Amino acid sequence: MRKIRVAHVITRLCRGGAQENTFQTVRLADRSRFDADLISGRTSGSEGSIEDRVREAGIEWIDEPALVRDVSPVRDLVALRRLTGLFRERCYDIVHTHTSKAGFLGRVAAARAGVPIVVHTPHGNIFDGYFSRPVTAVFTVLERYAARKTDRLIALTTRGVEEHLVQRIGRPGQWLPIFSGIDCSPYEGARENRERTRRDLGIGPDDLLVGTVGRLEPVKGFAYFVEAAHAIAYAAHNARFIIVGDGSLERRLRQQALNLGGSIRFLGHRDDVPDLMAAMDVFVLPSLNEGMGRVLLEAGAAGVPAVATAVGGVPDIVADGKTGLLVPPRDAAAIAKAVIDLAGDAERRARMGEAGRAFVVPDYSLETMVRQIESLYEKLAAEKGLDS
Predict the structure, then answer these.
(1) 152-155 and 175-177 as β-strands: parallel, antiparallel, unpaired?
(2) Tell me: domain 4-181+365-384, CATH 3.40.50.2000, correct?
């Protein structure tokens, strides 16, 4: 039985759930069965990069500078030509594309190169929070076209499957849900270090720490978190707030938060997210669009209840009233009310946190995710007779 050659293609390696998912799928690949390469464009901007981690992991990483996030007709045609040539040269058995831009170019290139198996993971959708309606409509048509060149489509949740089928992207038989896993191992120690982390942050034993984590970009909805923080601080004088992450909106958010004074802190990018998550009393996800909300698994692993917007696959992760509270998107008042409801009931927060942890650990681990993806590869390889 020969090794199966797999190429994972993604536009960039910034810090984000899609990039982490792709990186870990390559890093944890069963090397006795799969030769897995990673192909991406160059990472730039304020969102940070995981390129150093990719190098340190010893992954075969192919840098394709023409592969860029924004629409660029000249570069896109160059990227399409180069990817087609690369797929032919390296004789990949499987091309697995990730996110919309790399997904479209990569799948068209794979079809031109005659790659036997094509898999795509959108890591969410482009239907809300990213573009204007006319642009979204164009991208939706392109997704329908690319789906016809795809053997299997992976959504992060069952709701993600349904959202794409409603838009007539792919056929039911093409889709399956495979979650985006996390490394659960750091969270046990983080929970044990909770009080020390809170002291290091200057959070007192009677303070209510409300936090959020993510890229400070419009689709993540952090302006609604800051707006809600004003109402929460008025109702709960012991409330303190942290925002973990960086991005293009940081300056605007800091300006919006000026009236909160020292009760809110912008921590920027941190490598100790498990510790910070475990130090929180309530985690808030204010996103306008999410494929799954991978950070919600991190909150669950930390034993922290979540207040999250009911978008995308989030309701498949947060059980409303059991592991957290769901609120409408773009509704700061609803976020504030949910946090205030939890603020006065420590026992309820504890119950929700433990229920969230029981949901996540160990079923949503990285290893389980990779096993499911590779099981799909094996099934497709058998269907195409690659080992015969």
Answers:
(1) parallel
(2) yes
Share of the chain above pLDDT 70, in %: 98
What are the residue boundaries of the structural domains of the chain, listed by start? 4-181+365-384, 185-360
- Strand extents, DSSP E, the chain: 4-10, 34-40, 60-63, 94-98, 117-121, 152-155, 175-177, 208-213, 239-244, 264-268, 282-285, 306-309, 324-327
Q: Which tens digits make up the pLDDT trace of 66-85?
A: 999 888 899 999 999 999 99
The amino acid sitting at 46 is S
DSSP structure class, residue 269: S
Q: Is the pLDDT of residue 323 over 70?
A: yes
Helical residues (DSSP H) of 127-279, grouped into ranges = 133-147, 158-166, 185-192, 194-200, 222-235, 250-256, 273-279
Whether the per-residue pLDDT at 31 is higher than 90: the answer is yes
Question: Is 90 exceeded by the pLDDT of residue 48?
Answer: no
Residue 224 structure tokens: 């609604």
Q: What is the distance between the alpha carbons of residues 21 and 36, in angstroms, rounded to a whole number?
A: 14
CA–chain centroid gap for 148, Å, is 25
**Two structure tokens written together for 284:** 């808030």
Model pLDDT for residues 220-231, shown as the tens digit of each residue: 999 999 999 999
CA distance 287 to 284: 9
* Domain covering 185-360, topology: Rossmann fold (3.40.50)
